């Protein structure tokens, strides 16, 4: 017969083993995916960053030194398509606006009509130029948290959508299109739509041309 202490030890060991098995089972469930939709939980997130530069202005607009500062600032920022430029000028000087507009045109950008709210007060005789840069990214990708191969809920992988949406976030030239879409010409003319078909119909097949004759000696 086993000593009572041995029986108690065996029971405690069995309980510990059962608890460990249950813990491992629950841990396995915790690492299983739970998104049963085909819509990925990893979506592009759009962020806006504002840069500002204060310049002195007078009756004739910006001075030569401040125009050089502004042009150098634009170059240092590496302005590109998707950036927005705004002007906060208490005097609303048309000369100052035209000078900033001319410099922005060198980078292929226009001046935005809306002026974002910035910190600090802009005094008369000073113009504040604000550049708003928009970026898009997909946080928490790649997501390899679901390491279990078992999938009892028929859900998509935790990494589902990371590749496609991350590539989309990089490929879209203006990340603001994720928020408001793109505005422009949405209709196409018949000539444009049928151009490829017309070109294909007018092109002669490669095998219809006569075989070139070569002289033999």
Molecular structure report:
- The chain has 217 residues and is α+β, with helices and mostly antiparallel strands.
- It has a domain at 48-135.
- The protein contains seven helices and four strands.
- It has helices at residues 4-30, 64-77, 94-105, 162-171, 177-180, 190-193, 195-202, and strands at 45-58, 61-62, 84-88, 126-137.
- It has a four-stranded antiparallel sheet with strand order 2-1-4-3.
- The radius of gyration is 33 Å and the shape is flat.
- The N and C termini lie far apart (114 Å).
- Residues 23-28 have low confidence and may be disordered.
Helix content: 25-40%
Largest β sheet strand count, sense and barrel closure: 4 strands, antiparallel
Beta-strand fraction estimate:
15-25%
Derived from helix and strand composition plus strand pairing, the structural class reads alpha+beta
Rg over C-alpha atoms, rounded to the nearest angstrom: 33 Å
Number of helices: 7
Order of the strands making up the biggest sheet? 2-1-4-3
